[in-house]
Amino acid sequence: MGALATLDTLWRKYHYEQPQRLTLVILGIAGTYRRTDIIPSVVYVRKEIWGDLGRRYRRKFEPCPVKLRGSFPCEWTAPRSPIRLPEVTGLTLHTVSASLREARYWKRAYPEADIETQENAAYFLFGTSVGASMYCFRVLSNFVGHRQWVKEAALRLLHTFTLEDVVPLCERLMDRDNTANPR
């Protein structure tokens, strides 16, 4: 979908519905930079970086200076995962790193990045802006820079994880909210 389209959709829906309390449960697939990860497997995104805001040179990336961004953050941290999973740092880029050369470029620019997505930063920016609780889960579907994806297996795992772990989590969150704010 892309970060900007995601952010636009979230803001439109938020302004239209104007919820009193909001929790975002973000689900999707992602590529991993770590060659030791098992594919497919589920991870929890604890930290997210909006990576390609700045100037790109041939061998290095220069992030947008703070004086040009103002108060716009480029990093966010989520609460600890309510489900026991490996915690990772995500990197949001506007395009998929479809080659090893591209993957090495971004990993050199952001050595702390574990996974790559195209929209996580939009969720984190939106959630932080409106004071929402956020839980971001991703199923690893490929190694960044490789075109070999295990998309079907990753989507099956995402489906199973959603039914077995995320639905009960959402039920607990709704019970907690209803107990705290009875109507």
Structure description:
The protein is an alpha/beta fold. It has a single domain, classed as Rossmann fold, CATH 3.40.50. The chain is 38% helix and 26% strand. It is built from five helices and eight strands, in the order H-E-E-E-E-H-E-E-H-E-H-E-H. Strands 1-7-6-2-8 form a five-stranded mixed beta barrel. A two-stranded antiparallel ribbon has the order 3-4. Helix 1 (3-17) packs parallel to helix 4. The chain is globular.
CATH first level: which class? Alpha Beta
Q: What is the name of the CATH architecture?
A: 3-Layer(aba) Sandwich
Element-by-element helix/strand order: HEEEEHEEHEHEH
Helix content range: 25-40%
Largest beta sheet: what is the strand line-up?
1-7-6-2-8
Proportion of beta-strand residues = 25-35%
Q: What would you call the shape?
A: globular
CATH superfamily: Nucleoside phosphorylase domain
Q: The biggest beta sheet, please?
A: 5 strands, mixed, barrel
Enumerate the spans where pLDDT stays under 50 for 5 or more consecutive residues: none
The count of β-strands is: 8
Summarize the structure.
38% of the residues lie in helices and 26% in strands. It is of the alpha/beta class and 183 residues long.
